[in-house]
Each structure stands twice: as C-alpha cells, then as structure tokens.
Design a protein that fits this description.
The chain is mainly α. 66% of the residues lie in helices and 3% in strands. The chain folds into two domains: 98 residues; 73 residues, no CATH class. The chain contains nine helices and two strands.
C-alpha cells in the first residue's frame, strides 16, 4: 500500500477501535458482593478479536521492523477484563501514532554519485501486499463459516476443476448445499471486516 492507502486502512481500524471502546460495559458485582476492583466486558468479543487481528496484520505488513508491532502485541498479551478501557486507549494510541507518523522507507543502497537522484519503485511490492491483505480477508471470511470437512470439499473441487467456469459453478452449488445462510454470512464477514468497513 502507498502512504495514502495505509492512512485510509488505519483510519478505518481506529474508527472501529473507538466503537469497540465505546461498547465496553462495566459488570456490576452480584447483590451482596463487594469488590475492590472493576470488571468489564466487550459488547461484541468476536468483533474485538477480528479488529485486533486485522490491526496486527496491517501493522505486520506495512510497518515491518517498527516497534509499534511489539508495543501492540505487548498490550494484547497483558489485557485483562479489569482494565479493558485503559488497554483500548493504549492500542488506539499506537495506531493513531502510526497514522500520524507513517513509516518512511529509506533506500539502504544509495548510489555512489550523490548528484544522481535516487528513485525507489515500490508499486509491485505495494500491489502484492494489498492483494495479500484482500486474499486473507476473503479466506478468513470463508473459514469462519465453513467446517473443516466443508472446506476440504471446496478445496477438492478447486483441485479437480481448476479456475474454469464449470469449477466456479460447482463451487457455488456446493456452497448452496451447505445452507442458505452460508453465502450471505461470508459476504457479511467480508463487509464487516474493519479494513473493508473503513472504506464505506
């Protein structure tokens, strides 16, 4: 991704992170129980897990070698339901810092002649990374809805038929046979992915 695309993706993830933080709920103690600490829960824990993994994937692909990845992972490892609000503040702070000061790649092999301008072409690399993110979003959306056996059946069809019109038709029919909701759920998983959602 170029800097603009990274900014758009981060903006979407930060926006969803704020929604997650706003949805954190305080769990009051049961009647007759006194606690010296507070306990919280996420309104939608699955949404938080998806958001967390998308954020990590974006940081890992676009900020390789940057300390933001370890900082983000460290907060995740130490997260407890007694401090969800402050932990979300830390995670959002890391993402906002990446958005405000995006990583700038430097040429590691400067030419000897300083009078010749250096031109770095990253188009192919950026396109490849963008394609990998898109592919991973689709694969995760499919894996979330299919059982291991169903996924194996789809893989077998792809191996046998390849990228042919007949193969596509057989895959669609097979997905339909798994249940009416499968296709709509896969599409919903893709649309509600934080990276995709941020572009709407």
């Amino acid at each position: 991704m170029d800097t603009k695309d990274i900014g758009i993706a981060l903006s979407g993830i930060i926006s969803n992170g704020n929604l997650i933080k706003q949805g954190i709920k305080f769990i009051p103690p049961p009647v007759g129980v006194w606690r010296t600490y507070k306990i919280y829960e996420f309104e939608d824990y699955q949404f938080f897990e998806t958001w967390k993994n998308c954020a990590l994937r974006l940081l890992s692909t676009e900020f390789k070698g940057d300390r933001c990845i370890k900082d983000f992972e460290d907060v995740i490892k130490e997260m407890k339901n007694t401090k969800y609000p402050s932990d979300m503040d830390k995670l959002l702070g890391i993402l906002i810092a990446c958005e405000e000061i995006p990583k700038i790649e430097k040429d590691q092999n400067p030419q000897e002649d300083n009078n010749i301008p250096l031109i770095t072409i990253n188009n192919t690399q950026n396109q490849t990374q963008s394609q990998e993110i898109v592919i991973n979003i689709f694969i995760e959306a499919i894996k979330d809805e299919l059982s291991g056996k169903q996924l194996k059946e789809i893989k077998d069809i792809i191996k046998e038929e390849g990228n042919s019109n007949q193969g596509k038709t057989i895959v669609i029919e097979k997905l339909k046979s798994f249940g009416e909701d499968i296709l709509s759920n896969i599409v919903a998983n893709i649309i509600t992915n934080p990276i995709v959602w941020g572009h709407f």
